[in-house]
Amino acid sequence: MSDNNSEDEQLSNAASYDYSRDFIVEDSSASEDEQGNNQPSRRQRGMPFKETEGGRIILEVGQLFNNLNHFRVVLRDYVVQEGFELKRIKNDKDRYTAECAYEGCSWRIHASPIEDKTTFMIKILQPRHSCQKVHKNHEATAVWVARRFKALIEENLDIEAKFLRREIHRIYGLQLPPYTIYRAKHRVLNLTDNDHKKSYDQLHAYGYIVRRRNPGSMVLLHTLTPHIGAPSTFQRFFLSFQAQKEGFMFGCRPFIGVDGCHLKGKFPGVLLSAIAIDANNGVFPVAICICEGESKDSWSWFIDNLYRHIGMEDNRRMTFMSDKQKGVLLAIEKHWPRSSNRFCARHLAANMQR
Ligand SMILES: [Zn+2]
């Protein structure tokens, strides 16, 4: 991914490429071999690369690109469009050589600068594949999606990730993970890390609104202030709406499943959750907690608060199900009297297989 950033910086270059520069360049080094050795001069005409009307990319020997990055950006689009993976053999300012990553496939491209040392020209292209189209593509990153679908996202800021995902599948035949789409959308909307950071400042206000609008809900924010006057940092957050509590007490069996999962994204952490099973055997969310990690302390904080919120009113004998993590067991034993423990068979099986 090391060339992602530099590619990014150059995106504006590629986008603002002046297609009206439709002159013909004569390049005397056009007949070099892949090592960059010039063959006896044989003049070859080059022409600036242009996308076709429908945005389809057709690559040909002799096409010219502003610079190496412009070539890389176009090639990446081409690779996704054609549905194959790229194996880069040479990738520097003097030459770019790549082949189809599928072993034995004969597709191959080689480009290098012309006399001005900046403009890149396709010198060799073996366009035929002897492989199958792929439906996953490493080139189709969030950066790629953001660039390719920038206009669409900007026109419709509320565009649903689901819709975008379908569009990509329709046009390119690619099944991208939802997370890639989400990141691409945020990239276009220019939601920087700072916006994420700022959202932590709003947790107080959020908690206040939740409690005001949903009386009986439990919202807890646990912060850490290293010394007086220092800014406090986020530690944990607990949320359970009154409706979840009532739904659990009056519509679910006295059973609570607890588990933790790691959060992806800029600010990592762990999401602890408590779920129940309703009368239709559907999963019913009871409470969540975002915390620093799965530890004795964090589980204890979560279960203690869950008990204060629900357990103190719900006198049923509760059965907990967990993945047998020590922190969970201790926390339940300590904070939830009149409860018993079951272990999740799927977790047990997974642990046995390790
Ligand atoms: Zn191939």
TrEMBL record:
Region span, Disordered: 26-49
Residue ranges of domain Transposase MuDR plant in the record: 57-122
Superkingdom to which the source organism belongs: Eukaryota
Domain MULE transposase per the UniProt entry, residue ranges: 256-351
Pfam families xrefs: DBD_Tnp_Mut, MULE
PANTHER family: MUTATOR TRANSPOSASE MUDRA PROTEIN (PTHR31973:SF187), POLYPROTEIN, PUTATIVE-RELATED (PTHR31973)
Protein name (database record): Transposase MuDR plant domain-containing protein
